Amino acid sequence: DTGVSQDPRHKITKRGQNVTFRCDPISEHNRLYWYRQTLGQGPEFLTYFQNEAQLEKSRLLSDRFSAERPKGSFSTLEIQRTEQGDSAMYLCASSLGDLRGETQYFGPGTRLLVL
Amino acid sequence: SQKIEQNSEALNIQEGKTATLTCNYTNYSPAYLQWYRQDPGRGPVFLLLIRENEKEKRKERLKVTFDTTLKQSLFHITASQPADSATYLCALKGDDKIIFGKGTRLHILP
Fold first, then answer.
1. Distance between A63 CA and the closest CA of chain B, angstroms
2. Does B89 contact A93 at a Cβ distance shorter than 8 Å?
3. pLDDT tens track for A29-80
4. Which phi and psi (to 5°) does residue A57 adopt?
């Protein structure tokens, strides 16, 4: 399967714990996005990378959230000191970043539940 | 403020009929607009992209229109089937990132 993969698919944690999610994009894609989605809402932009450079972060992304893409390939999203409000589906997407039309390919998501 | 609006209520359509979903936006001048399909518990899947200089785009039973004056896109599924039941998301290019609407849940009734 050469699509976008995410790991883990599900994560249950206690409030205050740190969690880390991984995303492996489609190999030739230079852009990688992280989104958060809650029930009944569309994906909400968190941050994105062009190769290894983090180009934009949403104002909604607090200091407890950090993302990396060290070699321009896979990416990790870490949430420190989790809160119940962090419970959501975390989606990763990748694209070629073609200015003519950027099609994003999404992974299956990581569903986080903070108790 | 910038907004993307999709019908928040679910849309029920009889099988075989045409389903029409609406996406309205304000305070954007997007270079293009996209439609995605999302099934429960899964990531969105890209369906169609329409650029600002295009009025209509078709793909099999799908048709998208884009009216930059009205700031509206319509998404049509003709000859709808129960397998078309899903949430459909509108997304547009805002600044340097893609912004999604909340989506419309579509139910095709057999």
1. 21
2. no
3. 999 999 999 998 999 999 999 998 888 888 777 889 999 999 889 999 999 9
4. -130, 140
Query: Residues of B at the A interface (Cβ-Cβ below 8 Å)?
Result: 4, 31-32, 34, 41-46, 49, 51, 89, 91, 93, 96-103
Place of tokens 């230079």: A30
d(CA B31, CA A60): 25
**How far is the C-alpha of B45 from the C-alpha of A31, rounded, in Å?**
17
Reading the block at residue B14, the tokens are 């009889």
How many angstroms separate the CA atoms of A22 and A32, rounded? 12
With beta carbons under 8 A apart, name residues in chain A contacting B97: 33, 45, 48, 56
What pLDDT, in 10s, does the model give residues B61-95? Answer: 999 999 999 999 999 999 999 999 999 999 998 77
- Give the C-alpha separation, B31 to A82, whole Å: 37
Q: Residue B107 and residue B110: Cα distance in Å, rounded?
A: 9
With a CB cutoff of 8 Å and minimum separation 6, the contacts of A4 are A23, A24, A25, A26, A92, A93, A94, A105, A106, A107, B43
DSSP B78: S
